[in-house]
Inverse folding.
């Protein structure tokens, strides 16, 4: 690690400890030449994940898009923001755990629908109607019939 004060290449670590959120390690270092101390942070390098849309376009994975879609689906429903954030966090973990640099938007959509189905039927149908692009009332009724059969 290069000293930010004198550009010398050798330093020693005096203290290491995790940050409050446990996502990185804070290290106090001392330059072996000028003896000045400075702090560095070490964290896991994020590998960017891209979402492949239905039209073939690629865009960076954005957890906020999932959160916004779920929030709209759960509007005026007895679902807490903590439940919504938990679902969003779980889906983000699943996406990153695929260890793929590209995931399809349909993969993410199915994860959201699966979780909403477990949480709230109305939120699930709301999300499904947009995600699956129901063309008419019959397609909508077919989805409702599936839910009723499972209950």
């Amino acid at each position: 690690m290069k000293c930010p004060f004198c550009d010398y290449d050798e330093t020693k670590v005096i203290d290491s400890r995790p940050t409050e959120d446990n996502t990185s390690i804070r290290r106090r270092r001392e330059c072996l030449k000028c003896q000045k101390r400075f702090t560095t942070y070490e964290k896991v390098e994020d590998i960017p994940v891209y979402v492949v849309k239905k039209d073939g376009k690629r865009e960076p994975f954005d957890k906020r898009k999932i959160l916004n879609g779920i929030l709209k689906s759960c509007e005026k429903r007895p679902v807490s923001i903590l439940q919504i954030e938990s679902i969003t966090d779980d889906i983000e973990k699943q996406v990153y755990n695929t260890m793929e640099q590209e995931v399809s938007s349909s993969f993410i959509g199915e994860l959201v629908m699966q979780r909403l189905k477990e949480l709230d039927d109305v939120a699930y149908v709301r999300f499904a109607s947009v995600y699956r692009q129901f063309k008419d009332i019959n397609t909508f009724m077919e989805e409702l019939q599936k839910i009723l059969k499972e209950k």
The first helix runs from residue 63 to 73. Helices lie at 63-73, 81-97, 105-119, 121-131, 137-150. The radius of gyration is 23 Å. The beta strands are 11-18, 24-31, 37-43, 50-52, 58-60, 102-104.
